[in-house]
């Protein structure tokens, strides 16, 4: 049996910078799939809660992404609307498909142009690109 240490995770410096800046002006949420205990250990290991206003762990009490329910739950927790919320993710089949199903604009983090049947609203190559992305000025309340 293989035991994986859930606390052996680290944030890249660029992610820390982006979260520091975005959390100053925007409400942020985490929407993740997995066992609640394991996901919470990873979140705690990098102290993500200092930047986010809501956390939705799907796959146990609610259906996993790409089902729209986890995204809808995050919108409710943020007291936001789908029109004022943007989801950022690196998987077309999970994040972009789920965000689209929930009526959200999406930002796909990828350096590939291999877009499948799920088309993101925007595409970026680096997480730092979120800091100068046009939608930041457009939306009064965003989630991640």
UniProtKB/TrEMBL annotation:
Gene Ontology molecular function terms on file: metal ion binding; phosphatase activity
Gene Ontology biological-process annotations: small molecule metabolic process
InterPro entries in alphabetical order: HAD-like_hydrolase, HAD-like_sf, HAD-SF_hydro_IA, HAD_sf
UniProt KW Lipid metabolism keyword: no
Coiled coil: none
Chain segments annotated as transmembrane: none
Top-level taxon of the source organism: Archaea
Record keywords, A-Z: Hydrolase, Magnesium, Metal-binding
Pfam families: Hydrolase
Requisite cofactors: Mg(2+)
Family recorded in the similarity comment: Belongs to the HAD-like hydrolase superfamily.
PANTHER family in the record: GLYCERALDEHYDE 3-PHOSPHATE PHOSPHATASE, N-ACYLNEURAMINATE-9-PHOSPHATASE
Protein name (record): HAD family hydrolase
């Amino acid at each position: 049996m293989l035991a994986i240490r859930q606390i052996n995770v680290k944030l890249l410096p660029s992610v820390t910078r982006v979260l520091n800046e975005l959390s100053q002006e925007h409400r942020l949420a985490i929407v993740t799939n997995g066992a609640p205990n394991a996901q919470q250990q990873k979140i705690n290991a990098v102290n993500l809660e200092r930047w986010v206003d809501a956390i939705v762990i799907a796959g146990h009490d609610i259906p996993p992404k790409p089902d729209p329910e986890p995204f809808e739950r995050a919108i409710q927790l943020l007291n936001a609307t789908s029109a004022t919320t943007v989801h950022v993710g690196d998987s077309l089949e999970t994040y972009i498909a789920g965000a689209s199903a929930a009526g959200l604009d999406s930002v796909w983090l990828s350096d590939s142009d291999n877009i499948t049947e799920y088309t993101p609203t925007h595409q970026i190559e680096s997480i730092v690109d979120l800091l100068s992305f046009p939608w930041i000025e457009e939306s009064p309340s965003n989630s991640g």
